[in-house]
Amino acid sequence: MIPIRPASTAQQVHDWLYRCVLRGDLLPGARLSETEIAAQVGLSRQPVREAFIRLAADGLAEILPQRGTYIGRISVRAVLSARLIREAVESDLARLVASTRPDLTAMGAELDLQAQADAAGDVPAFIEADDRFHHAMATAAGFPAVWQDLERLKAQMNRLRHLSMRSFDRGATIAQHRAILTALQAGDADAAEAATRTHLRQMLTELPQMAATYPDYFTD
Questions:
Q1: Are residues 49 and 88 both part of a single domain?
Q2: Domain HTH gntR-type spans what residues (predicted)?
Q3: How far apart are CA 152 and CA 81, in angstroms?
């Protein structure tokens, strides 16, 4: 587990654990110890217990009476639902951006950062730049809050991405992002929508392969 500076609230402990689960630092089935985490972050067990409850409410942990708290498995249904919603929303955002032709400098900058992270083999940085690329598209469309709404839906999707991007060709993701950006810069709404849908459907290939490779990590 990754050490952190002493936290002052259950929310901070929750946020740290949340990131650890999404990044794969805490794998499905891992047991969480109130005592160990409380000692690690310099808190009593009560805020740590509250953080566990919040993590369970997120669908990322299971609290089993008399047995303890365990990191939950990745929900295939939740991944597919989030992907479906993202495709519907982001394909519309792509059409909006292509039709209004706003400044796309931020998207280009994140694409460059993603390429740098890929070259360095830094998967967390790669995915962070990926997220910012999509956030920048929502912002360019004039709907930055839409991305925040999507963020709340895609926790299980992000867990899959941190797993799959260690196995799949990250260059393919960069190429898909480049195709989206090129279409947006050209003001081609049809091409931008098509490129966005192609990109977000990549997960339909990754998910079954990851579930077959790591069956103990997934649940329906």
A1: no
A2: 7-74
A3: 12
